[in-house]
Specification:
The chain is α/β, with parallel strands linked by helices. It is built from 13 helices and ten strands. The relative contact order is 0.11.
Length: about 325
């Protein structure tokens, strides 16, 4: 039995993908590693095939035409046979001891017939010689199965990312999740879309996922994000369209609060990038984004205007310094 499937979407990843795969191999035959070669033009395909040949009962190499990160995630989910599904980007890796703890936890949950919809783990920003672990203590209960009623308030620097979630494979498929192809920043959809379907969760306070920051060509590099701002805005608008958080307010207030929290964060990211760019075109796109939210959900618009994302609409000479301070404190980008 495979307790967890790791999907590793790869595009021209020859210089770092082996480190990623080696960290996952610590799971042995308890894990399945699907390396998705997304139409690479370097030696990515050869490396994937090498690992499949060496570990045929653990690694599967999949080769497909280029469709973007979301396409790789979709393909991995389609082929996964593990009880749980985890995406690990090819320039990231996992902590070996933490992986063993995750597997032990899944085995216990299965034995107790309490397989949860989503597991949450900590992730660590790895930027050259700097490390910062993002934890969910005082927000999520530790070492027990829980629901939304036991979820506390998320800190602004500790919202759920693709790095921190591990989904029950059957659950995720039932949500109907399908990420847009040839689009960056769909990892936000991967986390946001399933939220209203989640009934049970389990939090492990361990530094499981190692999130590398610092490559010039990374999609989360500030300059790259500004260059691809239209894709960020596309994802932002899709998330606005998915749900009205206030529809859940009476029946599941904590879920509603977190949906609002997540939209607030995404609006902040989009708005501040457009402020940093400071072109007339991008200032207009910032106004259009807020008008889009106002038209789609006036109540959510008012909430965001009074929150973090609203601060990004202050005059540029006020908004940018605040962002730079937050960047230094929280070590993102």
């Amino acid at each position: 039995m495979k307790y967890i499937t790791f999907a590793v979407p790869c595009y021209n990843s020859e210089s770092y993908m082996e480190h990623c795969i080696e960290s996952l191999l610590v799971g042995g035959r308890d894990v399945e590693i699907i390396v998705v070669d997304d139409g690479s033009t370097d030696n990515t395909a050869k490396i994937a095939d090498k690992y499949e040949k060496k570990y045929p009962d653990i690694v599967r190499a999949v080769h497909k035409e280029n469709g973007g990160h979301g396409s790789g995630v979709n393909k991995g989910l389609e082929l996964a046979t593990g009880l749980y599904y985890k995406v690990v980007d090819s320039d990231d890796w996992v902590d070996e001891e933490s992986l063993k703890k995750v597997l032990d936890t899944i085995k216990k949950l299965k034995k107790d017939n309490t397989l949860v919809d989503m597991m949450v783990v900590n992730y660590v920003y790895e930027r050259h010689n700097e490390q910062k672990e993002i934890k969910y203590v005082n927000t999520l209960p530790e070492g027990k199965v829980f629901g939304w009623d036991e979820v506390g308030k998320f800190r602004k620097d500790a919202y759920l990312l693709m790095h921190s979630v591990i989904y029950n494979t059957k659950f995720l498929r039932k949500t109907g999740l399908k990420l847009p192809e040839k689009t960056f920043y769909v990892d936000n959809i991967f986390v946001y879309y399933p939220l209203p379907y989640i009934k049970t969760m389990y939090y492990l306070n361990i530094p499981f996922y190692r999130y590398f920051i610092g490559r010039d060509d990374q999609s989360v590099n500030e300059k790259t994000m500004i260059k691809r701002i239209d894709q960020q805005l596309y994802v932002n608008k899709l998330m606005i369209d998915f749900y009205n958080p206030y529809d859940y307010w009476e029946t599941n207030k904590n879920l509603a609060k977190y949906l609002i929290h997540y939209i607030d964060i995404i609006m902040s990211v989009s708005s501040i990038l457009l402020q940093i760019s400071n072109t007339e075109e991008h200032q207009q796109k910032r106004k259009e984004l807020w008008e889009y939210l106002k038209k789609k959900n006036p109540k959510l618009y008012k909430t965001c205007k009074l929150s973090v994302s609203g601060a990004t609409c202050l005059p540029r000479f006020l908004a940018i310094p605040g962002y730079k301070v937050a960047q230094k404190i929280y070590k993102f980008n």
